[in-house]
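Continuing from yesterday's entry. The apo prediction looked reasonable, so today I'm repeating it with asparagine included to see how the binding region is handled. Same sequence as before; SMILES copied from the compound registry.
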Amino acid sequence: ATTQPHIVILATGGTIAGSAANTTQTSGYRSGEIGVQTLINAVPEIKNIARVDGLQIANIGSENMTSDTILKLSQQVNMLLARDDVDGVVITHGTDTLDETAYFLNLTVKSDKPVVFTAAMRPATAISADGAMNLLEAVIVAADPNARGRGVMVVLNDRIGSARFVTKTNTTTLDTFKAPEQGYLGVIVNGKPQFETRVEKIHTRRSVFDVRSLRKLPEVVIIYGYQDDPEYMYDAAISHHVDGIIYAGTGAGSVSVRSEAGIGKAEKAGIIVIRSSRTGNGIVPADKGQPGLVANSLNPAKARILLMLALTHTKNPELIQNYFNAY
Ligand SMILES: NC(=O)C[C@H](N)C(=O)O
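Holo prediction written out below.
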């Protein structure tokens, strides 16, 4: 069995490690209760696929994930994948902010070896809990040589999604991770991954972003656009000396007169502002006369991740826009 691939499972918490008072409870339970070794022991089938080690990074609901923790996670994954005796990693994570951490690693992992995020929608204590199959399928993908070089992946519900594109689209259902525009990278059928597409956007080894010795990420906040949205949200961001603002804009990133005034003030204060869309799909065009830079097809939360990384390199708006077009 020494010829089996060696996969390291890094656990951060979430519903996959959640526990509820009874078998029918699927909300209001506690996330991040069960340790990584218990998660692994619950899926003995993993032994047929790979030799696995577990590492507990955190045990939290992903609404409490922080920039400091994702930075440390990326550094840990880079160290693991640099080792000849590690073939891939699986990361268990809460679904609520999984797309943010996965996209951060998609931009900062310097390796072609597979990095696979997985999670669950039902706590481990529920009937038909999805965590065990998701963990097994994540290990299957991480152990597959054909999974190399595809960027960071998200495996849930028999699908392989790209961290660049998939996001949580439903509050409670099992098939919540989707990318309506771009679809999936592939599927897992009867324990075998079948890859169908590749991502064009730059990721992992080709990404210019290197956080291996970075101590702290810049601070970027998100301001939501809606009817009567007040200018004082921008005043608050400016007085807190944030480094960047993502505008989660209406429609194709349209800006109210009040937001326009706020964005103008923020830019005068040296803050980079990116217009994205609250619709969750489509590209925000860089129309003349509109303030700020544009997020391309990144949702507001992922645009925040890329802006934090871009700001570790430059404050030059043209260069930052180039990153948003390419990543
Ligand atoms: N399904 C989940 O994992 C939700 C949970 N609140 C989390 O993100 O940690």
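Comparison notes:
- The pocket of asparagine is lined by residues 14-15, 31, 61-63, 94-96, 119, 121 (CB under 6 Å).
- Residues 67-81 form the longest helix (15 residues).
Will overlay with the apo model tomorrow.
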